[in-house]
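Before the break, one more example. Copy the sequence into your notebook; we will annotate it together after we see the structure.
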Amino acid sequence: MFKVTFAFEDGSKVEAFANAGDNLLEVARGANVAIDAPCSGNGACGKCRVQLKGGEVDSKKTLHISDEEFEKGWRLACMSKISADVEVLVPDIASAYKSRMKVADLSSKEEIAIFEKAKSQIEETGIQFRNSLEVVELQMAEPSLDDTMPDVERLTRALRKFMNLNRIRVPYAVLRKLPDVLRASKFSVKCVVRVTPNDMFVYDIFDSKEDVIMGGLAVDIGTTTVSAVIINMATGEILAKSSSGNGQIRYGADVINRIIETTKPGGIKKLQDAVIKETINPMIHEMCRSIHLPENQIYRMCVASNTTMNHLFAGINADYLRTEPYIPAFFKTNSMFASDVGIEINKDAHIIMAPNIGSYVGGDITAGALVSMIWNRPEFSLFIDLGTNGELVFGNSDFMMSCACSAGPAFEGGDISCGMRATDGAIEACTIDKETMEPTYKIVGEPGTKPVGLCGSGIIDVISELYMTGIINPKGKFVREGKRIRHDHYGMGSYVIAFEEEAGSSKNVEITEVDIDNFIRAKGAIFSAIRTMLSSLDFDVSMIDDVYVAGGIGSGINMQNAVNIGMFPDVPLEKFHYIGNSSLTGAYLMLYSTEAEKKTYDLAANMTYMELSTVPTYMDEFVGACFIPHTDASMFPNVHQR
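Here is what the structure looks like once it is written out:
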């Protein structure tokens, strides 16, 4: 047994013990040490870099670490086996995804304005903002020797007179506190109840003198990030907000790697704990502390997430999603409560889940479709949610069709040598001077933060600029020379955005021809999915009236650059609209409004799902789109004019 010490840049340390031959990344996972591993530890991404500070590990040499870096002690955790006592430095960048990732939540004025506009548009359709939760106030006669009615019957009779319902359910949690609350309040109480046409459920009981807030929790569980809000269920007011990296990230950047992880012994529980115990519950506690609201006063929760995340959240086997015929355990469920999955709010809180419509189109898209308002417009609109996967909805008030494409982790910085998530040091926007080839860029973080790598929006900008300035050709190969153009001993070209001396890392921040090729395939997946879906309806891109872009990456995307590289269709820029985190907004609407919840179920039931893997022409479309902007120049006339 050997001691493994994980040291961090803030001076803190975590110690663990391991056997000879144990994988260092697995040891870190077992010790709850966050080390980003988008490829889930198969050595493909090179993101799980750690530095030896003492001792040694049995580590394979990889192309992701140069000879000079290897001499300085840099290793890939996933390629290292324990062979002695060892201490390794875990750099900040390896764990930044947990708390410092740039997220499309409701933290900026722009995002709040988009959210308020969405609320107004939904309300204008006639959908009412009301739900089944209420606070009722009761005054009961105190018991006596002449009136020996039990407490629970006294309460239910009073409620029955108030609501004229025959069936009233009082759970154990309320029954346990009932005698004390009744006597302390002199039988004058407030009850938090859920009222339906058939029955009433009592969630809580308080002294009538107390101010009672009915809390509700809306959560968007993304593959990469999680965002949440606590609201007042009586008024709809947002009381608290929070966002975090999804704790499951260390098991892989994409859903397939995470599903594979669940097939290992204890894997389902491990993935469920990562999103609930490590991510959502800490967010709940943080928000409740900030507004002085007890967690058990959150009486309802709504979750919007993709189909795989829904399964992993619920602790249900998701393995059948990745194998033909790609069958989920459920599309819609109303049978889940907080106590079932360990969400630390009121144990009897009902969990609403935005419905899935396919194996890879989930509740985040049905919630987003509600917010996009496609269903209420006669014009043909395209809704795109960009994240670890690309999900699309096309249609109008008469019909809607959806599909999902596996864009891979490129939009999150995976498969890109200097790619990273949108955390401190990520270049999120870039321009390149056509004459000098010198870059100008914007970095995530405080002023003065040095560049470390490129996040999704930055990669789009850099590739667009390289193409539009003639530095690369349509195949992504470098055709100009200059001080920022490098070639390795294999002849592979790269463009240096920040040299080592001006970067916040131990090497140049650069993008290579291999990186560009990987990203061309990712953007090609998006555009070919759009084309395939439209072609199935005998439509073409000229018939798109509006494009609604959602998701964390969407917030930073330069739409023109996305068109330049052939990711989005070549339509006028005024047709593009960013609609924020539509998944979180949709979850909020479903939580607060029973009518909005029902409308989302209706949208899901009436939306056609296209499984791209079964469409023979999809691969032809994909091959054609693996070019900048496309092999068919006529599809991008405005790009070629520029």
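The radius of gyration is 27 Å. The domain at 2-99 is CATH 3.10.20.30 (Ubiquitin-like (UB roll)). Try to locate both features in your own notes.
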